[in-house]
Design brief:
single chain, alpha/beta, seven-stranded mixed beta sheet, four-stranded antiparallel beta sheet, 6 helices, binds ribulose-5-phosphate, Ribose-5-phosphate isomerase A, isomerase, NagB/RpiA_transferase-like, EC 5.3.1.6
């Protein structure tokens, strides 16, 4: 008998991308995140684009993809409320708290998420963790504050390194830098997010606990698992 191949990570992402379409409210503007899972969501969106009058996007990359399939992209300032924000995550725990920012879009992701009534996280099941922190925590930082913020993470037992693109520091859509922090023990995501948010020079920390996901769609070999 030929063994049945397990689905690839990309196939699991496509599965949850498709499942997320059920959370659209026809005729309402949506929020769209960033990353490879969201790219699959945007592909799925192309098939139902008549239901989506416009989107607010969390990155230049997603904006380009949305426009390419014919969806108008609005500035976040033009919108007061979004029914839904759909985005991926680098890690998610059982309470819907996440680490995000692997794609360097965390600041705009938090802004768009803040406009939305519901955050729907789409991810393959490898992203579900007991405790956040194995994935290096992305932190967007004003360039002149980088070394100061590195030292503050050191004091917490973390090792922060500047994210590079080739031989230069990566520059975000907002003109800032990203530190990736390893070795943190994130026992209380809400408290750590609040604390790091107070540090001068930190634009956004990639802990999404204050703006956790209300629904998480996880792609598994048995189908979509929904956590809510
Ligand atoms: C981008 C993000 C992404 O949602 C996160 O990195 C997950 O990406 P992918 O879907 O490619 O695994 O936070 O800043």
């Amino acid at each position: 008998m030929t063994p049945i191949a397990s689905p690839t990570q990309d196939e699991l992402k496509a599965l949850v991308a498709q499942a997320a379409l059920a959370y659209l409210v026809p005729g309402q503007i949506i929020g769209v995140g960033t990353g490879s899972t969201v790219n699959q969501f945007i592909e799925a969106l192309a098939r139902v684009k008549d239901q989506v009058p416009a989107a607010v996007s969390s990155s230049e990359a997603s904006t380009e993809r949305l426009r390419a399939i014919g969806i108008a992209v609005l500035d976040a300032n033009e919108v007061e409320r979004l029914s839904v924000y759909i985005d991926g995550a680098d890690e998610i725990d059982g309470q819907g708290c996440m680490i995000k920012g692997g794609g360097a879009a965390l600041t705009r992701e938090k802004i768009v998420a803040a406009l939305a009534e519901r955050f729907i996280c789409i991810a393959d099941e490898s992203k579900l963790v007991e405790k956040l922190g194995a994935f290096p925590l992305p932190v967007e930082v004003v360039p002149m504050a980088c070394e100061h913020v590195v030292r503050r993470f050191q004091a917490l037992g973390g090792t922060a390194s500047l994210r590079m693109r080739g031989s230069d520091p990566l520059v975000t859509d907002n003109g800032q830098h990203i530190l990736d922090v390893r070795g943190l023990s994130i026992e209380d995501p809400l408290a750590l997010e609040s604390a790091i948010n107070q540090w001068p020079g930190v634009v956004t920390v990639g802990i999404f606990a204050h703006q956790r996901a209300q629904v998480c769609l996880l792609g598994t070999p048995k189908g979509v698992r929904t956590l809510s």
